[in-house]
Design goal:
Blueprint (H helix, E strand, L loop, with lengths): L14 H21 L6 H14 L3 E5 L2 H11 L6 E6 L5 H8 L3 E5 L10 H14 L3 E8 L8 H11 L2 E5 L7 E2 L2 E2 L6 E5 L13 E5 L2 H10 L22 H10 L3 H19 L12 E2 L5 E4 L3 H13 L19 H6 L9 H9 E4 L7 H14 L1
Parallel strand pairs: 2-3, 2-4, 4-5, 5-8
Antiparallel strand pairs: 1-9, 6-7, 6-10, 8-9, 11-12
Helix pairs in contact: 1-8, 2-8, 3-4, 3-7, 9-13, 10-13
The protein binds pyridoxal-5'-phosphate.
The site of pyridoxal-5'-phosphate (PLP) has 15 residues, from helix 3 and helix 4.
Length: about 375
């Protein structure tokens, strides 16, 4: 039971981190106020250099959100009507929203129960179905590094090379993550990052970035985030958008970036402790042997929806927060269900793993400032509800 002496447990925690760097953040924001360069000021340029260096990508382009990062990357490829964009059915809505906004057709792909990421065999099958039907052109795969775990990038890239498709990494939950000796940002043709406050690197509002090794793509991204401008401000070469990163948000991110490595290590400690406490009672997420799991979100898999309801109630009774990412697969969302049914003339194959995960997944508090006692209290609450 919660006593007043116990430290409250936050699901995400931005206050503990802020206390460490508040003076630096105040100083950096004051510098922006003094300079008055609020839009693509020097802090944005400095941040772009640091993000690229950190991720091991040649170019980083600061943009207004993770969603806009996805959109600008797809606009640069000219993705639109008649194009099929393959993406997991078990992800955040933004991944699917962007191809629809551009007039393209999202094709939902099932995920693997063991990694929560796109299932390559199912991806191949759906690409083959779209090709056989000949109505849509397979154009892009959006691999999502769900919960901070890298998708199977070697496999996705191989298929994309074979089929002439664009490989876009939705790394919104995984900034700082790595696969093999390469960080996310250096794998796909382009990588979309989100700096929404609760992500592994978060600002104090909306922000994002696109990482790429390709200089031509980088130039296009810079143009598209600024209304499609050319060399001069008032030459418009293409239809773009207002998708720039705020200077004040860049200043916040510059203060936070130096903490990231220690924070990733702390997240890994929390994940290790959860696995030790809960691994024999519930299904805890598989670790990533060859890489860095960024642990943006920590999820356990329960036996049934009924068991999940019991565990959530036990956690709530002990003042421990929990969340469900995601309660519905995207193909069951009212906004997408009809287009999903119509994306193939004979109807799309089922998506059983995505549907099942939505019934049984449960996400536990995860942030770098959870101490061992707090993790124990979360684990005790979960065990009490089984
Ligand atoms: C957060 C998130 C996004 C969107 O990022 P915003 O910065 O909120 O626009 C996209 N995809 C995934 C998987 C996310 O978790």
């Amino acid at each position: 039971m919660t006593t007043t002496a116990e430290k409250p447990i936050a699901f995400f925690d931005m206050k503990a981190q802020q206390a460490l760097i508040r003076a630096d953040i105040d100083r950096r924001i004051a510098a922006v106020l003094d300079s008055g360069r609020f839009v693509v000021g020097p802090e944005v340029v400095e941040l772009e250099e640091k993000l690229a260096a950190y991720a091991g990508a040649a170019h980083a382009i600061g943009v207004s959100s993770g969603t806009d990062a996805l959109q600008i990357a797809m606009m640069a490829e000219g993705i639109g009507p008649g194009d099929a964009v393959f993406l997991p059915a078990f992800t955040y809505t933004a991944t699917a929203e962007v191809p629809l906004v551009l007039g393209a057709t999202p094709i939902f792909v099932d995920v693997e129960e063991s990694t929560f990421n796109i299932d390559l065999a199912d991806l191949r099958r759906r690409v083959a179905l779209v090709k056989a039907e000949g109505r849509l052109r397979p154009r892009a795969v959006v691999g999502v590094d769900l919960y901070g775990r890298a998708a199977d990038w070697p496999g996705i890239l191989q298929l994309c090379a074979q089929e002439g498709m664009f490989a876009l990494d939705d790394a919104a939950q995984a900034f700082g993550g790595a696969l093999g000796n390469k960080r996310l940002g250096a794998w796909a043709h382009a990588t979309a990052c989100s700096f929404y406050p609760t992500k592994t690197l978060g600002c104090y509002g909306d922000g994002g970035a696109i990482l790429t090794d390709d200089a031509e793509r980088a130039d296009l991204y810079r143009s598209l985030r600024q209304h499609g401008e050319g060399k001069s401000r008032y030459e418009v070469l293409r239809t773009g958008m207002n998708g720039r990163l705020d200077t004040i948000q860049a200043a916040v991110l510059l203060a936070k970036l130096p903490l990231l490595e220690d924070e990733l290590a702390a997240r890994d400690r929390v994940a290790t402790q959860y696995a030790a406490r809960l691994g024999s009672a519930v299904k805890t997420p598989a670790t990533l042997p060859d890489g860095v799991h960024a642990w943006g979100i920590y999820s356990i898999l329960l036996e049934s929806e009924a068991q999940r309801t019991r565990v959530q109630a036990a956690m709530q009774a002990r003042g421990v927060p929990s969340a469900i990412y995601y309660p519905r697969p995207l193909h069951h969302q009212p906004a997408y269900a009809a287009q999903h049914q119509g994306c193939l003339a004979d109807g799309p194959p089922p998506l059983p793993v995505s549907e099942d995960l939505c019934q049984r997944i449960l996400c536990l508090p995860m942030h770098p400032y959870l101490d061992a006692g707090q993790v124990d209290r979360v684990a005790d609450a979960v065990l009490a509800g089984l």
